[in-house]
């Protein structure tokens, strides 16, 4: 017997299964009762979890907080789970105008088609959101910093407005940029936090997964939405996130520090009109960022201009991008949060706005990976200098 039956490893066993076997009818009944009681250490079928997914859930909760978490096949699937847990036909949804594009599409497409009244709001509205809350308002959806333009929302003020309403208004946030540990939504009173584990938690650009975290009051609804929609993950992908979770704090700290160095250098470059990074002291959201966040990640944007300070166009942004990726350290890709450095013109991933249109010049969004910061700066400087 290998190691006399005491073979132990740092990594967990990967459990792949659909069927779960029981010792007897009595055993089946006992497990069913445990599952119905919310005990996540028991399962009756692969869709209800395995030891591998249970270990992942424990790791995630330690990093994000909340009373429980439901895993999904992607970040968007976790968003869908969270929204469907709360909203019904006739309800009113307030969603930040800086929300992730596919979340906007789900809201204005499927939710609106199901009879949900969808309204976008200025991400900088803060306590002013009180004026938008109606008797039918059931959910306020936040994202801070916002997609592409990185507005920092006054999360505590919005939570306070929701709690002061005459009826129960749920607050939820897409916390992908701030997870793990950079923003602790449950410490600020948020009810539901959604994270694309595809990004920093996975960290190696080789998986898709999302997670919907909830406080004790909303957890049953989130779990029921996940059960009904069949949102599940397999053991292999769960294992990959467990692997990534072992180093996520180190990676996000290193990538955030490199990004802040590069953001400061870009802010001084004549070809850059402004840098959109809330950790910079001159950013409009910096005061709120300092109050609520415990560090910064590696994702930010910058606005291009001509070297003489005059406006430029999207063709120039595309040319800068092509020169940058040709040097080999930045890839052109939609995702972010992995070990690799990426760039994406906002034109191709979309700056969608309903009430706060983007009026600036072309934006380049960069995700800073684990490359040496001096090498990344050399590529950025060369791409901006040429042409």
Secondary structure topology:
Elements lengths: L24 H12 L14 H14 L3 E5 L2 H12 L5 E5 L4 H13 L3 E5 L15 E7 L11 H10 L5 E5 L17 E5 L13 E5 L4 H11 L5 H11 L2 H20 L4 E5 L9 H7 L6 E6 L9 H13 L3 E3 L8 E5 H4 L13 E5 L5 H13 L2
Parallel strand pairs: 2-3, 2-4, 4-5, 5-6, 10-11
Antiparallel strand pairs: 1-7, 6-7, 8-9, 9-12, 11-12
Helix pairs in contact: 2-7, 3-6, 8-12, 10-12
Describe this structure in words.
There is one protein chain. With 387 residues, the protein is an alpha/beta fold. It folds into two domains: 9-245, Aspartate Aminotransferase, domain 2; 248-385, Aspartate Aminotransferase, domain 1, CATH 3.90.1150.10. The chain contains twelve helices and twelve strands. The chain has helices spanning 25-36, 51-64, 75-86, 101-113, 155-164, 219-229, 235-245, 248-267, 286-292, 314-326, 346-349, 373-385; strands spanning 68-72, 92-96, 117-121, 137-143, 170-174, 192-196, 210-214, 272-276, 299-304, 330-332, 341-345, 363-367. The protein has a seven-stranded mixed sheet with strand order 1-7-6-5-4-2-3, with helices on both faces. Helix 2 packs parallel to helix 7 (235-245) and helix 10 (314-326) packs across helix 12. The chain is globular, with a radius of gyration of 22 Å. The chain starts with 24 loop residues before the first helix and ends with a helix. The relative contact order is 0.13.
């Amino acid at each position: 017997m290998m190691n006399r039956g005491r073979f132990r490893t740092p990594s967990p066993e990967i459990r792949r299964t659909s069927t779960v076997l029981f010792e007897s009818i009595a055993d089946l009944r006992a497990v069913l009762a445990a599952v119905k009681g919310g005990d996540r250490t028991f399962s009756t079928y692969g869709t209800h979890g395995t030891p591998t997914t249970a270990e992942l859930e424990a790791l995630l909760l330690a990093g994000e907080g909340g009373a429980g978490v439901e895993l999904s096949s992607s970040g968007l699937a976790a968003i869908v789970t969270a929204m469907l847990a709360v909203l019904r036909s006739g309800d009113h949804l307030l969603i930040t105008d800086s929300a992730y594009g596919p979340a906007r599409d789900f809201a204005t497409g499927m939710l609106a088609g199901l009879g949900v009244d969808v309204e976008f709001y200025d991400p900088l509205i803060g306590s002013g959101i009180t004026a938008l809350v109606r008797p039918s308002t059931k959910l306020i959806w936040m994202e801070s910093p916002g997609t592409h333009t990185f507005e920092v929302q006054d999360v505590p003020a919005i939570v306070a407005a929701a709690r002061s309403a005459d009826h129960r208004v749920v607050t939820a946030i897409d916390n992908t940029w701030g997870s793990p540990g950079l923003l602790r939504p449950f410490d600020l009173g948020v009810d539901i936090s959604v994270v694309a584990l595809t990004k920093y938690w996975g960290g190696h650009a080789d998986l898709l997964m999302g997670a919907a975290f909830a406080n004790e009051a909303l957890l049953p609804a989130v779990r029921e939405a996940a059960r009904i929609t069949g949102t599940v993950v397999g053991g292999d992908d769960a294992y990959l996130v467990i692997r990534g979770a072992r180093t996520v704090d180190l990676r996000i700290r290193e990538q955030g520090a490199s990004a802040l160095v590069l953001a400061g250098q870009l802010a001084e470059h004549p070809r850059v009109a402004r840098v959109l990074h809330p950790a910079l002291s001159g950013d409009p959201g910096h005061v709120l960022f300092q109050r609520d966040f415990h560090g910064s990640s590696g994702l930010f944007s910058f606005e291009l201009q001509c070297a003489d300070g005059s406006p430029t166009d999207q063709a120039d942004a595309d040319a800068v991008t092509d020169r940058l990726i040709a040097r080999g350290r930045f890839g052109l890709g939609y995702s972010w949060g992995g070990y690799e450095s990426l760039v994406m013109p906002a034109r191709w991933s979309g700056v969608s706005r309903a009430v706060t249109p983007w009026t600036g010049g072309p934006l380049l969004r960069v995700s800073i990976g684990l490359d040496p910061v001096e090498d990344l700066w050399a590529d950025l400087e060369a791409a901006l200098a040429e042409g």
